[in-house]
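Sample entry (210 residues):
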Amino acid sequence: MPISLTISPTELEALKNYVLKTGLKRSKPASEYELLRVEDGNAKAIVYKSGKVVHNDTPESRRIIDSILKSDTRYQYVLGSDGVGKGEWHGPLVVVCVALTPLGVDKFRKMGARDSKTIEAAELIPLAEAFRKENIVWTPLILPPPTYNSKYAEFEKEGESLNDLLAWAHARAIKDTIGKSNLDKAKVVIDKFDVVKTYQRHVSAPLRDR
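Predicted structure, serialized as tokens:
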């Protein structure tokens, strides 16, 4: 199965230079969205202007990807959180924070980890199964509808909004994950739904339990 991943502008430039330097054979792009196509023996890859790369997952193609991915080694772990649901009747609010080493980030990127909105269901399920086999530090925070409604009412009494509740949930999951990981240096990627409120709750000590 082809592997799709997203690379940064710096990595995209490195990939272009790598293809030129090594003289890999190319074919004409098939659309205006493609930057280049590599078709050199067992190495086949389509590179899009957006930074998306789709390759045929052969040793030759993986060697190309390995050559251009850049690890952020300034940190022991990179933490990120995301959530789904707002406590609706049919489901809970779920926020999960995951901690990965720089090598773990690279490994998951090579497996095709990226924004789930860009992943088709047929690709998402095998990815999820592969992730479950990895030794990952992660923390789930689950608020069933009754609990969500109760907490939301508490926030409303204090003149706070849904974004404040979400920021609290993200900050709680992040702090709990940091506690599990015993970290000295960690990079925390905050969900952009409300960066300021999440940051304020994350750096506050102690974090309010409600």
